[in-house]
Design brief:
The chain has 453 residues and is an all-alpha fold. It is built from 20 helices and no strands.
């Protein structure tokens, strides 16, 4: 007797199979391609931060050649952030409709174009034009590359990839400081812009080949088809949207923005003014200054590669997200703020360098952790948009800190007094942000309130 054929498995709304309980299986973890994407994202962030730091590393020769003041240089540096936050916000919402492949390719291609104006004619307007375009193209970079990365890693495997993504920033400065400084001193500051333009163009071509979307974001899979299945444990209701007002005004998101704001204030200050500070206040040569900047970046890299891995371990041991990811953000910004406040009042070279490392490198762990805390209270389908909002708000210091510091340097009785004012103001802003983060970030509580857990 011939047995009747087995009934076809039921399908979900995306055309994928469901199990006997009517739920879709979790997508398989493609380890090989996931780590290829992670490597591409790290190199993406490396180029991103090299692009950001090149102006600061070339600040002294550019200011000398063009005869510009501290305030004018600060204005040029701040112009990078003119469209930075706005573009991050717009692209964040667009990410629900556009693939990460298209978004990151477009960004990197624009980075290459942004280096060209100053090569045609070196002037304040062309420097500003290039920095404005670069800022617009880099505004969504951190949030959208993290969003792309999350599509390839399930929730309980994101700690190390997140740390590696942000470590691209530290690697960018670690590598860029000596390499770009060598280019500037040996071939002129324009050569650094040429090399970075070529690097951005090459990356965009490779990404177009390999940078397909992964299965862990409730979005499209490598072949361009919609992924069936519940994407991640923490997004079992990934297809359900919540009002953005509720998502953006909960304490965890606001506290994460505060932590990012405090860390970004120090980061913007270091990109724009740390190389000049080392040369004019500590009497270092360009090579010595590059070595110090690389050492600070190496310190950041150690933190980035160790703390988030520990976070994943604590989460697997049952520790709450508040204690494993929220508290470290506030503490990191607070410690960096205290080091910043102490900088003007130490004399010894060793103590000064140690404080510089903590002030400009100790906050680094905030950047991967604040994305992790936000991810815990946002449906996966809305994650890209909320990441864009968080990045836009958290990076606003880039629009203020460089110009304000230049103004203080020009208006103070001495350059040293100007740096003292800038460091004390930075410390005050960072401390306020640290306290806000410690009080507001409560992922489990907010997830329950939003009915996501």
């Amino acid at each position: 007797m011939v047995e009747p054929p087995s009934p076809a498995p039921p399908l979900d709304t995306a055309g994928g199979p469901v199990d006997a309980k009517g739920t879709t299986p979790h997508p398989a973890f493609d380890r090989r391609h996931a780590w290829l994407i992670a490597a591409m994202i790290v190199s993406f962030m490396l180029i991103n931060y090299a692009d950001k730091s090149v102006l600061g590393l070339a600040a002294v020769p550019i200011m000398n050649e063009l005869g510009i003041s501290n305030s004018t240089y600060g204005m040029i540096s701040s112009s990078f952030s003119l469209l930075f936050s706005l573009s991050g916000l717009v692209v964040g919402f667009a990410s629900a409709r556009l693939s990460s492949r298209v978004l990151l390719f477009t960004m990197a291609a624009l980075w290459a174009v942004a280096q060209l104006p100053v090569l045609v004619m070196a002037s304040v307007p062309t420097l500003m034009a290039g920095r404005v375009l670069l800022g617009a193209a880099e505004g969504p970079a951190a949030s959208m590359s993290m969003h792309a990365l999350y599509k390839w890693f399930p929730a309980d495997r994101r700690g190390l990839p997140s740390a590696l993504q942000i470590s691209g920033a530290a690697l960018g400065t670690l590598i860029a400081a000596p390499v770009v400084t060598w280019l500037i001193t040996s071939s002129g500051w324009r050569s650094a812009f040429v090399v970075l333009a070529v690097a951005s163009a090459l990356w965009s071509l490779v990404w177009w080949r390999v940078g397909h979307d992964g299965p862990h974001g409730g979005e499209s899979a490598p072949g361009g088809h919609r992924t069936a299945g519940t994407p991640d444990p923490e997004t079992s209701r990934a297809s359900e949207r919540l009002p953005y007002r509720r998502l953006l005004l909960n304490g965890t998101v606001l506290g994460s923005i505060a932590a990012a704001f405090g860390a970004s204030w120090a980061l913007a200050l270091s990109h724009a003014w740390l190389p000049a500070y080392l040369r004019t206040q500590l009497g270092m040569t360009p090579g010595q200054g590059a070595t110090v900047i690389s050492a600070i970046s190496a310190f950041s890299l150690v933190l980035l590669l160790s703390v988030p891995v520990l976070v994943d371990f604590l989460r697997r041991r049952g520790r709450s997200s508040r204690w494993s990811t929220a508290v470290p953000q506030g503490v990191a910004v607070a410690v960096a703020a205290l080091a910043m406040a102490a900088l003007p009042f130490v004399d010894g070279r060793g103590a000064h360098l140690a404080l510089l490392a903590v002030a400009f490198g100790g906050h680094a762990i905030v950047f991967p952790l604040h994305y992790m805390t936000v991810s815990a209270v946002v449906p996966a389908i809305q994650r890209g948009a909320v990441f864009g909002v968080v990045a836009a708000a958290g990076t606003l210091p880039g629009l203020v800190s460089p110009y304000l510091t230049g103004h203080m340097l020009d208006s103070a009785a001495s350059r040293s007094a100007g740096y003292t004012q800038a460091y004390l103001l930075s410390a005050a802003v960072m401390l306020v942000c640290a306290v806000a983060a410690l009080i507001a970030i409560r992922p489990e509580q907010d997830a329950r309130r939003l009915r996501l857990g």
